[in-house]
Structure formats: C-alpha cells, structure tokens
Amino acid sequence: MEATNHELKNANTTALVLLNTRNIAGYKSLNEMVNSRADEMQWGNKFGFLHVSIPEFDKADEPPNPLNFVFKARKIIRRKRNSAAVYLTGRLLETVRTCRGPEATAQYIHSTLKNSSMTISNMIGPVEQMALAGHPIRGLYFMVAGVPQSLTVTMMSYMKKLTVAVGTEKGHIDPQRFKSCVENAFDMVLKAAAKS
What we know:
This is O-acyltransferase WSD1 C-terminal domain-containing protein. This protein is α/β, with parallel strands linked by helices and 196 residues long.
C-alpha cells in the first residue's frame, strides 16, 4: 500500500478470515465418508468468520524485525479464533439460513465481505490423488470469484502439499508490484528467521 499511495500507509486494513467450524476428527477416504452414518460425518459447509485488523509493520524497530509483525498478527488471530465470536457467527449464519433462507444468508455474508479489505480462506483437500477422465490431477486450488474485496488469498492442501492462490482486483492492484512486494516480504521474514 505504501509503494502505490503514501496516503494509504496510515489506512486501516481489515482481513476477513473464513474458518471451517465443522468438527473433523481426521482425514477420511471417500469410501469412509460415503459409508459413514449421518451422525458420524457431517457434509456441507459450516463456517464462521473473523474480522482481523492487520497490524502495521513497526518501522521504529532498529533494526526492523519483520518477525515482530508476524508474531503480532499470529497473536491477534489466535486470540480472536479462540473467542466465542467464531461460534456465535456460525450460529447466527445458521439461524439466518433456517429462518430467512439461503438468499438472506448470502446477502448478510456479502454485506460483511464489503466491509473488509481482503479475504483469507483455506480448505483441507484430499490426501489421495484424484483423477478426471482417467487423467491424474497433479495440483488443486480454489478461488472465490465475485467477492467485493481487492485481495483474496486462498490455501488448499492436496496430497500433503500446500497451494496458495492469490487473486487481486483488476485495475486496483498492480499484479507485478504486488508479487514483488510479497517476494520482498517473504525474503525479509526468511532472513530475520535465519538470524534468530
């Protein structure tokens, strides 16, 4: 944000973190999921969300330590994730869906999405290799389309490998500059972690 517009460096940035609230006892194969009783395995999406204020990178540190930023963000997410907010949000969404229907629930979620700068979501993918028409699938990721945020980050595991996908709003974020900033941030964190 600072690289593109110096007025934005003091702006508040909020991420909407989507969390799966469905109890998962562990990985299940497709056969185990299909043959399980309804009370053993829930199907469908059960989720809640957290609004997380993204902490500012403290440039007053001499020398600057990006790990402080990472630890601060981790502390905020852990505190909010372990609060009743996730459970209550999930119950609110379920109540709205039951009483007013899926369209009202979708409108509520969309209005919540409009009030955040970015979305972060993840999904546990299959541990077994999948195939489509007899062709093995080497990699898998997902992206949420049509959301009102300028930035969407999704993570998905597939065969014990993690894929991170990033989507940016066309015309709002320069993809090359964003990629350069992310690479620079990862490099800073890696160097700081190697020193400590």
